[in-house]
Amino acid sequence: MPRRIESHWIAGPAGRLEALLEEPEAGPLRLAAVVCHPHPLYGGTMHNKVVYRMARGLRRAGVAALRFNFRGVGLSEGQHAHLTGEIEDARAALAWLRERYPALPFALAGFSFGARAITRLGCEAEGARWLMAAGFPTRFGPVDCLEACRVRKIFIQSTHDQYGPRTELEPIYAKLPVPKELIWIEAADHFFAGGLEELEERVREAVSEPRPSGSGPPSHS
Length: 221
Description:
This protein is α/β, with parallel strands linked by helices. The protein has 6 helices and 8 strands. The chain has one domain: 3-Layer(aba) Sandwich (Rossmann fold). Strand 6, helix 4 and strand 7 form a beta-alpha-beta unit. Helix 1 runs parallel beside helix 6 and helix 2 crosses helix 3.
């Protein structure tokens, strides 16, 4: 898909953060979103294929997407800080994005470790239009913040996610307040192998169309 892309440096709490800002070339911008990458200690970067596909799906829906590298990744300064510091990196990226687009609503998206970061940040910060968590890892600490979170929550999960299996995610999801959606993608693993095209399309659909405010049964592919 045609896009406009810019490289930026964002002032983060542990040093500058390397970032890419992408806009669709055609059509009005509807919203601006930060997109966070998977675990920095296991090869996660803003160039991860799932993160790239999420950003592209968002652009197709008229969303400006800001990807960035957490501290210590790529050219970003600082050292890994066990999620707490990375949440603050995401907060800095969001502040930068809101300053860039002061008239637009904002949202947060993330994959894996990045999904944990944005759900924590988005449930604490006020005003997010939605939170999109792909490959949400169920065994990476408590989810108390989500159980009281009234922001719209969109979960997109592989049917064979070894870090967030259906048997663990569905009971967590059932306890969360509305509005919420759970979308299952038929894929081979946590990284949506064989399902990346569907992932991108489901991302686009989820933020393009009006969704019911109530909860329904999980969506299956």
